[in-house]
């Protein structure tokens, strides 16, 4: 642990270089026992990177931070640990060490990030409320930055609906920024918690917020931008998510609305899928709703169906792909009625036609 902290504390060694050194030497401790000339043979590692590597001040700082960690029972995960966020491991520039607090359980869970402006409007709030209400049916983990606006709105809603939520912080775990959000810490930690790569000596500086955005994007299957002005941190998060080949979604808004400009631009520039409901996310990520939920949940998540539509949907849900004649027979409906109803259901996005005059529920 001391060796990992020492590497974190060397100013010229970022996470990419740290991983190269660890891979070459076999362990963090071996980096400090190897000779400088040997380390310079590593591709991408030069004299500037190694400047100060062996300085004892880094060991002293690491020992002090470790003492703080142990005294305050702070948990941590090394990037090669089994309990480290799985998707984050695929990001070359992800932190080599994450500190955490709370009751975080990532095992077998779907993880999505929701970000946006700190000046959320009533439009953004309404979308967040509806989105969480619908997506709660699938019990995903909601990740955000615990900042003003969209972040705290979506995380409070996640708590309200019993979802695990994780706040990625731009400072050490010994403080909370903004201070007014400290009152939500216990609620979040009951079912979720906080991640940060920053030490207890780190302050919430501007560059730290930009740096933590890669954790938000990297640990998630998809990133959703709810509202954003033409420029903003959430757009940086979207760019990072795209660089990781993750799906990005943006909520469209009116062309004249300041805090829809960023989202509209993401969609226009094909940097994000347009998102109008939770169903868009479920469909484009190819999440299997059927594996955990009932037909009534399908109905609630996607769209309201009338009695005839629901009858047909339930039949297809239970029996898989079926021909028009079979649907009419089993649902006790005339073929012309089934045909027109299936067309309406196709337009609603709850069934799809297949070759051979087959239909299946989505």
Automatic annotation (TrEMBL):
Residues 304-357 form the DprA winged helix domain. Transmembrane segments: none annotated. One of its GO terms (biological process) is DNA-mediated transformation. Signal peptide: none annotated. Residues 77-284 form the Smf/DprA SLOG domain. Belongs to the DprA/Smf family. This is Uncharacterized protein.
